[in-house]
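Researcher: Quick test of sequence recovery. Tokens follow.
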């Protein structure tokens, strides 16, 4: 059974008011250490104390996951009050939480208006698996690109998410999953080192920038957020457990490896320019040859650090054995693994998912050439949480569309 909680109702009014007030103050979340030190200066913290205060705050925010200054036990009451007057560390509003039959969770988060804009809503998905849990994070509200098989691509870009909003998805998901240490876990002062939650015990062990939006069109904010997410004195996610997926923004690929250092995934989906121009229109600007060249030059590439190539299986469009052979040829010399994604249907699409047999034959061809080619099990389809199904507020699914989707799933349309 799918569980859906509407969190906008009754007693959230107070929380909303607090959120609106909070939006007027800058958030400490998403600032790097230097910016935080400068911000503390503006709040009257003397220069000689700033480094130490930043260290304390960093720990409370990113190791302990507190969302209220009053929880910061080793900071004086006066300073906590001063911090509260100047800054916020509040979480976004959770408008909706849906839990799929398979345990996948999808949250609709609302972020306050920025400047003259309106509040925005985005979706974040949590996929629990044996021994790991992956959080799929959004980088933009909507997308400027218009990949023809992607639901997000039908939603216009509203705006880029800030570093704070990108991190807030991770932190709020961890709150809701109980993935931060309990409030009564001993203080840092009694410990050596700051990581209280060991990597193995975590509910969110991996993150993928594969939610709404094109992360490389929001490079600076994504970079800032991922550097904080992987900071060893804070959220401490290994860069090997962070994957950034791009549709192929070639000029930013090298920088991604050089400046962020996370794992790279490429939304390939076609092996000929004429077809890729249609499926992933950014290909007209950066065609396959340029894309493959950028992949070959990705910093740190090795057999232990492969690029993932995502390939959505579209019936009679890109799923022939010739396509599979051409794919092998194209990837020659690149340490790669190929992730075959059964197409996830959404209301209004004309595509269908390839038959299971076809997907398996396609996978075998690639496998025989020596590449790992896992078929991604669709997760959370019943709550439209699977790859490419995300789309938020402004055009959230009408009930009629929801019923249409259910009918599609029952009829097996697009079902792997
Ligand atoms: N914009 C980035 C990251 C988000 S999309 C990118 O395009 O890479 C995450 C992955 O889901 C991409 O590989 C995307 O091509 C794929 N995807 C989009 N729509 C899909 C759908 N309907 N079914 C299966 N995969 C889809
Ligand atoms: Fe944007 Fe990625 Fe969807 Fe293409 S696949 S429309 S780049 S979110």
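Model:
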């Amino acid at each position: 059974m799918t569980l859906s909680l509407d969190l906008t109702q009754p007693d959230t009014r107070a929380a909303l008011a607090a959120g609106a007030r909070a939006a007027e103050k800058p958030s400490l979340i998403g600032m790097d250490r230097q910016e935080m030190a400068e911000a503390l200066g503006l709040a009257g913290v003397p220069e000689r104390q700033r480094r130490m205060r930043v260290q304390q705050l960093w720990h409370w925010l990113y190791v302990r996951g507190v969302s209220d200054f009053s929880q910061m036990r080793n900071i004086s009451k006066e300073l906590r009050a001063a911090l509260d007057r100047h800054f916020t560390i509040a979480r976004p509003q959770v408008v909706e939480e849906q839990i799929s039959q398979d345990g996948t969770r999808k949250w609709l988060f609302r972020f306050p208006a920025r400047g003259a804009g309106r509040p925005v809503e985005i979706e974040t998905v949590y996929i629990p698996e044996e021994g790991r849990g992956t959080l799929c994070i959004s980088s933009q509200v909507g997308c400027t690109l218009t990949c023809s098989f992607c639901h997000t691509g039908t939603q216009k870009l509203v705006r880029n998410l800030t570093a704070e909003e990108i991190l807030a998805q991770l932190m709020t998901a961890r709150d809701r999953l109980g993935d931060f240490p309990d409030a009564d876990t001993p203080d840092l002062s009694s410990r050596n080192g700051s990581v209280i939650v060991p990597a193995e015990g975590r509910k969110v062990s991996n993150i993928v920038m594969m939610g709404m939006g094109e992360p490389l069109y929001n490079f600076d904010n994504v970079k800032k957020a991922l550097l904080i997410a992987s900071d060893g004195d804070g959220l401490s996610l290994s860069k090997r457990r962070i994957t950034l997926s791009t549709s192929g923004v070639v000029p930013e690929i090298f920088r991604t490896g050089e400046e962020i250092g996370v794992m790279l995934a490429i939304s390939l989906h076609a092996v000929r320019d004429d077809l890729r121009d249609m499926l992933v229109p950014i290909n007209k600007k950066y065609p396959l040859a340029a894309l493959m060249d950028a992949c070959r030059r990705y910093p740190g590439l090795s057999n232990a650090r492969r690029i993932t190539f995502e390939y959505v299986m579209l019936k009679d469009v890109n799923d022939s054995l010739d396509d599979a052979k051409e794919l092998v040829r194209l990837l020659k010399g690149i340490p790669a693994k190929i992730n075959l994604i059964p197409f996830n249907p959404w209301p209004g699409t004309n595509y269908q998912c390839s038959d299971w047999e076809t997907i398996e034959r396609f996978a075998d061809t690639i496998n025989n050439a020596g590449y790992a080619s896992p078929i991604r099990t669709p997760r959370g389809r019943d709550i439209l949480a699977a790859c490419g199904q995300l789309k938020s507020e402004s055009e959230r699914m009408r009930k009629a569309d929801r019923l249409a989707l259910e009918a599609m799933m029952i009829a097996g349309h697009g079902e792997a």
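The domain at 93-410 is CATH 3.20.20.70 (TIM Barrel).
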